[in-house]
Amino acid sequence: MKNTVLALSLLFAAPMAQACETFTIGDISVEHAWSRASIGTDRPGVLYLEITNNGTTDDALTGLTTPAASMPMLHETVVTDGIASMPHAASVPVPAGQTVVLSPGGFHGMLMGLTNVLKEGETFPITLTFEQAGSLDVSVDVLSMRVEAAACDDAK
Ligand SMILES: [Cu+2]
Predict the structure, then answer these.
(1) Ligand 1 center to 111 CA (angstroms)
(2) What is the CATH number of the domain that holds 97?
(3) pTM for this model (two decimals)
(4) Cα of 55 to ligand 1 centre, how many Å?
């Protein structure tokens, strides 16, 4: 009994590092890059992350490439008359001095044509192209299918 309690408390105490790495190029830094585990490869995967522009010049995320998907693209979730749709977004603006979040229900990356099943606990690389800052390679953490946000402890 004592051992069981100890094991359980260890389980809950272990902080799960999820999408906590920061990637930087020029004035742009990206963190909390995550995706969800997929059941197969028939449906597109998702990509969520946070982009901070530490500079004084507006920038924009204009493209994605990854070996994980044959046609990754940027989408925006738009609700019109109560009906959600996901039009393709040519770019995601990242204004000077601001943080932009790609998240469920907003701008997001859509990984069309997954090349492999995305498994929880794995990571895959993605290259983000910014209008001003250039290209940035980011590692994406694949989280559980039930996750709605990166569970990174930001108390540093
Ligand atoms: Cu989408």
Answers:
(1) 8
(2) 2.60.40.1890
(3) 0.85
(4) 29
